[in-house]
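Reopening this ticket.

The earlier resolution said the output was attached, but the attachment link was broken on my side. Pasting everything inline this time so it's all in one place.
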Amino acid sequence: MSWLDDLVEGNYSPKNIEQGSEQWENIRAGRFTSSEIYKIMEFGYRPMTEQELKARPKTGKGSKTTRVPDPTQMSEGGKTYITQKVAEVLTGQPKQSAYAYPLVYGKETEPMAVEHFEKMTGYTCEEIGFQTWGEHAGGSPDRFIVEIKEGLEIKCPFQSENQVDYLILTDHYDLKRMYPAYYWQCVSLMLFTSLEAWNFCTYDPRMIAEKHKMTRIRIEASKIEEDMDLVNTAIASAVKEKLSLLDTLK
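Inline output:
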């Protein structure tokens, strides 16, 4: 029985592992995590086939292109991320995050953002801790929305001009196009938790008008099944590469 089944039946006891704590860092070590899953969603490139080269525009954009994205190839960033996870396994220690005040601001503002979301929607939010997905992946949802059984991801921008950009977003297509890292984070969390929808929200308490303080994009699993399959495939590929490298280093 999954944690969600337990939650629905009223038997679930949240495992609240505080983000940034030693326990949280240790459980993340060696795992591909939702906040960085976008790194393995960036594909590598392959040379264009002779047929593709002939089909290029004669002039203008694309006329000099010789390489195209290849979903079967890992990007250089993805390869670096896999190497990082191998290093974490070999040392038993997670990579240390550099101090950045915008991240501190986001962490400090998050409780206020959750309170605003609850007031705006009438829903109740709960912490559910780090969710493991097999032995090699997992993620930390910001909150679980009790009444509708959906996930919640919150971003609190340090710069208010970023909130202006978020307010322009209209749906998950915009989120995927403009903020792919956040999009893939939400998609992977749906995969890891088996929840049917995820709410991506941004919050800026400095905005004067209430309607500008929070933006909300709801992502439904039923509408992004192909992307969820892509995440599943990308993780499987990354795990294979990770284990292969570890085997080589034995």
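Reporter confirms the inline version is readable. The first strand starts at residue 32 and ends at 33. The beta strands are 32-33, 43-47, 67-74, 125-126, 131-133, 137-139, 143-145, 150-155, 197-203, 214-220.
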